[in-house]
Design brief:
This protein is an alpha/beta fold and 314 residues long. The chain has helices spanning 8-13, 40-53, 74-83, 98-112, 120-131, 137-151, 173-180, 184-193, 198-206, 211-217, 222-232, 239-248, 257-265, 282-286, 295-312; strands at residues 19-23, 27-28, 59-64, 67-72, 87-92. The protein has a five-stranded mixed β-sheet.
């Protein structure tokens, strides 16, 4: 059996509403997909339905080098592979901007699942995206109309109907909160949660880190958040600790590893015995760094130099 080849020329000439059969192995998940795929009974039901009836609603994709990127239909694609289907029906969209592609991904997930059904990190991703200025009201409503008709071809939607109206200012916390049924304060907190690294988002989703605690941690740099995430595996990070970490951070959110450990475990903890302080003159290290080098960079370099020294001289 010959595998269909990726034909960019033919794809570009095809109407952007035409349904094509695309090989499953030419499809890749959206590069910034923030939503959890179905699992368990829900996935099993979808696989069984596809085996019996096929894929009833086409997925939506855009061309990328060597194949296509899925915008809508990650679960249908995944279930189709598990069902043994070689291809899935798809509509190919060309010429989309990054913002437009993101709109397709987010709005389709909100049509399929209510906002309250999303995990905290997924809600944060939706709210952060909607709060940004990338969402043109007109373009967004065009996409919602298209997706609604795709799911229900018999739906009647007038040309001047505005779906999910949120007022004239779509980039404000109040209007976004009104759309999703949450307070303005919740919108602000979710936007901060979206700034956490994935490891900390997972802990927020599981409830191991409270939302207010996550908000405080979101002001730390990604490197510092990574150290906190390591500690959170063994020790619970509560709001008080998170506040202390934020207060100890430099303007860019950086805290050195020792300080993070001392705050989380406590200065007298056996896990992090406090060494005697050692003073180093400016002359001893500034001669090795260009003028204007940030203290963070100097600290990191000295730490690496010490690690290298003791690794090779002990």
């Amino acid at each position: 059996m010959n595998t269909p080849q990726f034909d960019l020329g033919a794809m570009l000439s095809a109407p952007q509403t035409a349904i094509q059969q695309i090989p499953c192995d030419q499809l890749k998940p959206y590069h910034n997909h923030k939503f959890e795929l179905y699992s368990g009974e829900r996935l099993e039901d979808m696989v069984a339905s596809i085996k019996e009836n096929g894929v009833l609603s086409p997925i939506i994709v855009q061309p990328i080098e060597g194949g296509y990127e899925i915008l809508i239909g990650h679960n249908r694609w995944n279930a189709s592979k598990l069902a043994g289907l070689p291809t899935v029906p798809a509509i190919v969209k060309t010429g989309l901007t990054e913002d437009e592609a993101e709109m397709y991904v987010i709005e389709s997930n909100l049509i399929q699942r209510s906002f309250s059904d999303l995990k905290i990190s997924e809600q944060a991703a939706v709210v952060a995206s909607r709060h940004s200025k990338m969402f043109s009201p007109g373009k967004r409503n065009d996409i919602i109309r298209e997706l609604t008709l795709l799911e229900n071809p018999n739906a009647e939607i007038s040309g001047d109907t505005t779906l999910n109206p949120v007022g004239s200012k779509l980039d404000t916390s109040e209007s976004v909160g009104k759309e999703y049924g949450v307070s303005k304060g919740s919108v602000v907190r979710l936007i901060r949660i979206n700034k956490l690294i994935d490891e900390l988002k997972a802990l927020v989703d599981s409830g191991d880190i409270a939302i207010r605690t996550g908000v405080e941690l979101s002001f730390l740099s990604e490197d510092t958040q990574a150290v906190v995430a390591e500690c959170a595996v063994e020790d619970k990070i509560d709001y008080k600790i998170a506040k202390m970490l934020r207060a100890s951070a430099e303007s860019d959110g950086y805290i050195d590893r020792y300080t993070v450990h001392s705050i989380i475990y406590g200065d007298d903890s056996e896990q992090t015995p406090k060494p005697k302080s050692v003073k180093i003159s400016n002359y001893a290290y500034t001669k090795y760094f260009a003028e204007g080098t940030k203290p963070k960079e100097i600290t990191e370099t000295i730490e690496k130099a010490l690690e290298f020294y003791f690794k090779n001289n002990t």
